[in-house]
Write a structure and sequence with these properties.
The structure holds two protein chains of two kinds.
Chain A lengths: L1 H17 L4 H6 L4 H32 L6 H7 L10 H37 L7 H20 L30 H30 L12 H33 L9 E2 L2 E2 L7 H35 L6 H15 L14 H29 L8 H23 L2 H7 L3 H31 L5 H27 L19 H31 L66
Chain B lengths: L1 H26 L13 H29 L10 H34 L15 H30 L9 E8 L2 E6 L36 E4 L1 E5 L4 E7 L4 E5 L4 E5 L5 E5 L5 H6 L1 H23 L12 E5 L12 E6 L1 H9 L4 H5 L1
Parallel strand pairs in B: 1-5, 4-10
Antiparallel strand pairs in B: 1-2, 2-3, 5-8, 6-7, 6-9, 9-10
Helix pairs in contact in B: 2-3, 3-4
Classes of the chains: A mainly alpha, B alpha+beta.
Chain lengths: ~600, ~350
């Protein structure tokens, strides 16, 4: 296999020398993994992320100062905010599209799309992805799906508004909600295309990691980033098709009169013909993707963090094999826990016990990972680059958010906090903020690789510290309004005088949310200005051991001049005794008197 | 105009950020010029100390939230199983707070302690099987205990018997956007029902009772509020006529989704009457706080010439916790828990299905 791989790689190498690139093939319909990574970063993370975050700020304003008039609503929401007061339907639409964009577009496509594409070939020593064409198609399908999702914002009745989980019958019946008309149709089409894009991407990642590793790059010499991306792609391939099937069945119910998810419905004075289906079936199908999705979002962030913490601690990652085993255990368990979203859905209570058991098991590999990160810091020589700050921040929010999962994963305790703000606080910390921190860490760390420039570190420090404070300021108090019994997705809590004393907590949360939003502008400014005016990067600015830092700063097609580097050791030989410098690149052969690190 | 203003503010923010960067750069000018954008010893020192400060920040936020916000939490449970629920909740909370305090301390302390110094070499430490075994096994034991504790409690709550004829059977009926409750009447048996019958009897059949089922004739349906006799087990049967809803009764630690096309169930025994709960010191304090807020708001409203807010009095609530459309946020029903005697008096006033359709 490796011989065949080498031949095809050198063919590719010869080929590219004669290849003439035009503007369109280089910047738009590019098949080069580095360019596709940048495309994902700019479209998925910066553009979609900006919209997703801005939406959350809009509805946070409404939650803090309910039913008040804001000029900003008037500008952005127009007829949906008569006289500047947000309409309840558009509140639900904003919540829905915020969730959809952040979970799928930013943290699935944006995160994996950027870093899997950039790092898989560069860190395993390949000229490019196994199929550049599929990779390009994957990006453009993603782009198409993003545009359709954004187009749904311009539908007269408003975009989908049934929550990002789009449970039928609410999502199936236009009579039940204005957003369930054309808005929901576009949502479903967009997500169907998104799934196709995601599958093409994932298959490509898997094939590339399995087939195109350079000489010497055994599976246990892979950096943990690659392990994380690899396993993420596998979970994606297993679970995303189930979402596609759920979406297709829902389209059937909506447009062709089938009854997969609907039965015995009376809406707007009319008995509908649907008979025999069950919304609970949809919940099963949705969460069979929905829960692994949490790890599709989180594992790449954890992989990035492993790499950055090791590099910046100038120390090997502690317990490499335990980290790999944890990733595999989390991936396996993530596919058998979906029922914990459905404890009180009406499914058999016996299943509640089963899913409590599997869910709390996930806490074990998660705890192992956290302890291993902490031990990696121990006796290190920590270099606080912005990427390192975000990585440590990730470990911190992963612990804070993860621990409340022990409460939510327990079917008994879920009864009274299900669908309250406690859940919102939990998942934002453990997968939202943590994954975003992983994403930011990755951008700061690999910016020199992506653009050949350095990001401004001082702006990075401001960005991190303001975000870190604001994130706790938003989500820590939120647990309490959940435990006070306030359900999520409420347009306002003023309809219940019982919740009147939560109003001032909502104001605190919104102020911190606005602060967090402002901090992201610092990042955006830093990103754009560094891209154009940043200091030119050296080839290996962070003194890292992995292969991507041996490829030239200015991108070339095929990644390395001449032969692909060979690998002689694992990726974490930092501060190894017997070496002058505190890192030994993977390309350095084992010395005469040196013993290969046992790990 | 507003657009212009927004754009101006954005531009000014950009300029401000640019100036702050300049200040940062100037502050480093006295030293050797370093524009590598890679953390140097000074950055490591500052950020390492900030890491420690951040640990203090996390602790302060935690303590402040528990100190300031514990009072907004739900009062003691008003149902029998709710006490078990609360115990399990606080046991779990104790464990996670302990773990949180410890791990955050170690994480941030290490970040502070080992902040980088030039020319120091880190300790080469790749793995230690014993150590890893320890921190796999200890969480595993704790989680197994929690799992078993949770499962036992879950079984006790969910596996209720439906054999006792003395148990009160009530149907909670959800629709966009209100609740109805149906009682079995004198026979305490709910008649068959389906949405197909909703348009019968000129819409008077508000929950779709099957008029051919004799059990349904003495059923009665209430809106706005429903009553429960204290210390008598209630078995709830949930239905929904249109979309998913969730019957959430936080004071009783009770919740179950209402699913069109199927009947879901939950059961609890209320133990504290509404009157007794209004005397509860936590509830009294909460109500006073709320009325203070409402009074202040009313003063504002008076100055604007608008209607004032009514003073608030505590009641148990049934809310909807599953997104269900426009008025999801305002789908409420009052629950009154009272003595058996008062309950029977209330019940006698209700109109049965057969009386309504005549």
């Amino acid at each position: 296999m490796s011989a065949a791989t080498n031949i095809s790689n050198s063919d590719h190498d010869d080929h590219h020398d004669h290849h003439k690139e035009t503007f369109i093939t280089k910047y738009i319909f590019s098949q080069d993994h580095k360019m596709i990574a940048k495309q994902y970063l700019i479209v998925g993370v910066l553009f979609m992320g900006f919209i997703g975050v801005a939406m959350s700020l809009l509805f946070r304003l409404q939650l803090a100062w309910p039913e008040q008039s804001f000029a900003v609503f008037d500008i952005f929401l127009g007829d949906w905010a008569p006289e500047g007061v947000m309409d309840p339907n558009i509140y639900l639409a904003l919540v829905t599209i915020h969730g959809t964009i952040m979970v799928f577009f930013v943290l699935t496509a944006g995160l994996s799309g950027t870093f899997s594409n950039l790092l898989i070939p560069l860190q395993i020593g390949a000229r490019d992805m196994a199929s550049g064409l599929l990779n390009m198609i994957s990006f453009w399908l993603f782009f198409l799906s993003s545009m359709i999702m954004l187009a749904s914002l311009f539908v007269e009745a408003g975009p989908a508004a049934a929550g990002w989980t789009i449970y039928p019958p609410l999502s199936a019946l236009p009579q039940a909600q204005p957003g369930s008309g054309m808005g929901m149709t576009l949502w479903l089409i967009s997500m169907a295309i998104f799934v196709a894009s995601s599958l093409l991407g994932s298959l490509n990642y898997i094939v590339t990691v399995v087939n195109l590793r350079t000489k010497g790059m055994s599976m246990f010499r892979l950096p943990l980033t690659i392990w994380a991306f690899f396993v993420t792609a596998i979970i994606g391939v297993i679970s995303f098709p189930v979402l596609l099937s759920a979406a297709l069945l829902l389209i059937m119910d909506r447009s062709f009169g089938t009854s997969f998810f609907l039965s015995d419905i009376f809406v707007q004075g009319e008995v509908l013909h649907y008979q025999g289906g069950s919304p609970v079936l949809f919940e099963h199908l949705f969460w069979f993707l929905g829960h692994p999705e949490v790890y599709i979002v989180l594992l790449p962030a954890l992989g990035i963090t492993s790499e950055i913490i090791a590099t910046n601690s100038r120390k090997p990652i502690f317990g490499y094999r335990a980290m790999v085993a944890s990733i595999l255990a989390i991936a396996f368990l993530s596919t058998v826990v979906w029922g914990h979203h459905m404890f009180i859905s009406g499914m058999n209570p016996f299943l509640g016990s089963v899913f409590t058991f599997t869910t709390l098991l996930i806490a074990i590999p998660s705890a192992v990972k956290s302890f291993n990160y902490i031990t990696t810091l121990w006796k290190g020589n920590l270099q606080f680059n912005p990427a390192m700050l975000f990585s440590i921040g990730l470990v911190s929010t992963f612990i804070t958010g993860g621990l409340t999962g022990i409460i939510l994963g327990d079917s008994t305790l879920d009864i009274n906090i299900h669908d309250t703000y406690f859940v919102v606080a939990h998942f934002h910390l453990v997968m939202g903020i943590s994954a975003l921190y992983g994403l930011f860490a990755g951008v700061y760390h690999w910016f020199p690789k992506l653009f050949g420039k350095m990001m401004n570190k001082n702006l990075g420090y401001i960005h991190f510290w303001v975000t870190a404070i604001a994130a706790y300021g938003v989500f820590f108090p939120m647990h309490f309004i959940g435990m006070a019994g306030l359900p999520r997705r409420y347009y306002t809590n003023t309809a219940f005088p019982y919740f009147d004393d939560l109003a001032n907590i909502n104001v605190v949360i919104t102020v911190f949310a606005l602060l967090a939003g402002a901090a992201q502008l610092v990042f955006l400014y830093n990103f754009i200005s560094s891209m154009f005016f940043g200091k030119k990067a050296e080839i290996n600015p962070w003194k890292s051991t992995t292969l991507e830092w041996t490829s030239p700063v200015d991108h070339i097609h095929g990644n390395w001049h001449g032969e692909i580097p060979h690998v002689h050791r694992w990726p974490y030989d930092y501060s190894k005794p017997g070496h002058e410098i505190d890192f030994v690149p993977q390309t350095t052969p084992i010395g005469v008197n040196e013993v290969e690190t046992e790990h | 105009m507003t657009v212009l203003l927004t754009i101006t503010i954005l531009i000014l923010t950009g300029v401000a950020i640019w100036q702050i960067t300049k200040i940062f750069e100037l502050s480093q000018m006295g030293l050797k010029k370093d524009d590598s954008q890679i953390a140097n010893e000074k950055d490591n020192d500052l950020n390492g100390k900030l890491m420690f400060a951040f640990l203090v920040f996390i602790y302060v936020v935690t303590i402040y939230c528990f100190w300031a916000y514990t009072k907004v939490l739900l009062p003691e449970s008003a149902s029998e199983h709710g006490e078990k629920y609360d115990t399990l909740l606080w046991v779990s909370f104790a464990i996670i707070l302990f773990a949180q305090t410890l791990t955050q301390a170690v994480l941030h302390y290490f970040a502070f302690k080992y902040r980088g110094i030039n020319n120091r070499k880190a300790y080469f430490f790749t793995h230690n099987n014993q150590l890893e075994l320890v921190w796999t096994v200890i969480p595993a034991i704790i989680f197994f205990v929690l799992i078993i504790y949770g499962m036992v409690t879950w079984g006790q709550i969910m596996n209720f018997s439906e054999d006792d004829e003395n148990d009160l059977v009530i149907e909670l009926y959800a629709q966009q956007w209100n609740w109805k409750a149906r009682y079995g009447g004198d026979d305490n048996v709910l008649g068959d029902a389906n949405v197909r019958f909703l348009n019968d009897f000129d819409g008077k059949n508000s929950v779709g009772i099957d008029s051919s089922d004799p059990n349904g004739m003495d059923d009665f349906v209430v809106t706005q509020e429903f009553h429960l006799p204290v210390n008598r087990k209630v078995i709830f049967k949930m239905r929904s006529q249109d979309v998913l809803h969730s019957a959430y009764m936080p004071h009783f630690r009770a919740q179950m989704n209402c699913v069109p096309g199927m009947i879901t169930e939950f059961s609890f025994t209320p133990t504290i009457t509404t009157e007794e709960m209004r005397q509860n010191s936590d509830v009294v304090a909460k109500v006073n706080r709320i009325n203070k807020i409402r009074y202040d708001k009313s003063q504002d409203l008076i100055s604007k010439g608008e209607e004032t807010l009514d003073p608030y009095q505590f009641d148990y609530l049934l809310l909807c916790a599953k997104i269900c459309g426009t008025s999801h946020y305002n789908m409420q029903m009052k629950i009154v828990v009272e003595s058996e005697k008062d309950y029977n008096k209330w019940k006698a006033q209700q109109q049965t299905f057969s009386e309504i359709i005549q």
